[in-house]
Structures are given as C-alpha cells and as structure tokens.
Design a protein that fits this description.
340 residues; Rossmann fold; alpha/beta; 434 Repressor (Amino-terminal Domain); 4-stranded parallel β-sheet; 12 helices
Length: 340
Amino acid sequence: MKNNRITLKDLAKDLNLSPSTISRALQNHPAISDSTKKRVQKIAEELGFTPNSIASSFRKKKTQTIGVIVPRIDIHFHSLAISGIEEFAYNKGYNVTIFQSKDSLKREKEILKILQNKMVDGVIICLGIETKNCEHFKKINKLGIPLVFYDRVPTDFDANKIVINDLESAYLATEHLIKNGCKRIGHIAGSQSTDIFKARLDGYKTALKKYNFPIDESLILYTNNLSYDEGVQCAEKYLSNEQQPDGIFCANDYTAVSVIQVFRKAEIKIPEDVAIVGFSNYPISKIIEPHLTTINDRAFQMGEAATKLLIRQIEEKDDFIKSETITLQTELIIRESSFR
C-alpha cells in the first residue's frame, strides 16, 4: 500500500523552500519571518501535514513519554495515583504509557524491557508484591533512564522515592481507637513480605505499647492481598473468638468494609460494640453505613509528586540528586464507624 503521508520534503517542494526552513517555521523559530511562518502553516494545514514524532524523538533524543508500572489498575489507590501522574505530565507536555505488573516479578521485568525498547524518557513504578530485590532496575540506571518509585519502594536500591509514613499513620489510627475507649484492638494486616504493610503492623503495635496495652497475637490476622473476601474470613474468625475485639484497625478499606458488613449481619453494633478504622480513603468508605473512619493516603498527590520529581530528573539530569525520598503527610478522617 502506498504511503500518502505528507513529509517535510513535500512541503519544501510545494513552497520552494528548504526542509530546514519549513521545520523552523513550523516550530515558530524567531529567525523565520512571520509571513513565511503563516504561509508554511497554512499549506501544512491544507495538506494535512503532521510532524514525524519518531524522527523528532531521534533528533532530540527525547520522546516526551513517561512509562508507568502499577501493580493493578483496578485498585483505587493506583487509579488515583495514575490520575495524578497523567495530570501533571499533561501540563508539562509529556505523554504517559501505563502497564500493570499484576504483582508479578516476571511481568515487571518484561515490562521494563518493553520500556527500554520504547526509549521512554523516564519510569515511575510501584513495586509488585513478588519483587524482593531490584537487580532488574540496575540496567535502567546504566542506561541513564530516570526512575522514581512510589508507595511500595525498595530499601536496598538508591533511587528517588515518594512515600507516606505508614508506621506513623497506623499509629494514629490505633491511637484513635484507644482514645475512643477500645480495650481489645485487633489488626487485619497485609502481606508481611511488603514493607508498607509491615510498617502498618509496626505502627499498630507501637501505639499499643505506648498506652501499655498487651499485644495479643490472636487479635492480629494476616492476609495475602487485603481483598474483600479475605476481610470476610477475618471477620468470621473474630466472631468465633471467645473474646471478640472491641476495636479493629484494618490495613486497607476493602477489609474494613467487609468486617462492617459481616458484623452488622451478626447484629453487632458499629461503633458501639466494635469501632473500625480502615486505610486509604477509598470511595466506598463514604458509601458504607456507617461511614468508615480511614487514613487519607494522598494517592493523587503521590502521583503528582512522583511525576514532578521524574520530570525534574529528566530535564536537569546533570545536577539532579538520584536518591531523594519525599514523604507526604497523611490525614486521619474520622467518621461514624469509630466515633463514640
């Protein structure tokens, strides 16, 4: 099939100008007269000329594209972070290409190879649950491709990182339950192979120790993915305990919502009998009855901050520090599920 794409050479022939003059006119170069610019732009529009972005990328050694790797798009935290990434990138003239690792290390490695071949200007990533070390990111560093991690970040790899203080946030959530009169406080924990969920468990324990509460391991229930179904299973385990908790801090909102629903079916009053706090401020936290007390983890702002940091690194390569960690402040949002 014949390629009918209009090129710079075609424009140059029609206008009796050099291709370099055409190119500068289209880029509004000050050395080209206004009359020539208008003439070139008029003919370019009439003929349907569009710049060859691939060729332009080779010349500039920039693609104006950012690669983003998230564990799962269907998790609200990551979709909100992506919104922050895209919003900031768009305003700075960058395109965003999004991939899901589905928490698979194999898939994460394959995506990195794709991004290397696509010659993206930089990469933003939240590590998958299976990722225990960051050897596969060393090639990205060697190639000089800027890299920013957010939320789930490596501890053994120097890179720019955007995080929240998960330990402090979990401490505040647990302290809130204590100050509202709870004496037996449970915790539904995320996978302890992931640092953020370790930190949330540590924050819970730190608050109990601070207020001289015993740490009862029977009140700490572990999950793999903090899914709604796992939350249901945890709630049923609590109901089967001889001594049920009177307060529960959940490591995310999905499990907190499932606990509320299971307990209400069992005619347990919330917050009168059991006060519940979640984590992340998902939209469902304002829909469930009673409305869920939770931690606002600033997902949108995290995406914005990661993109701002990455673009600074792309555009200020020579002077940029490549191992900066920015910690965003979270917020405890108190609603009916815990307020007595």
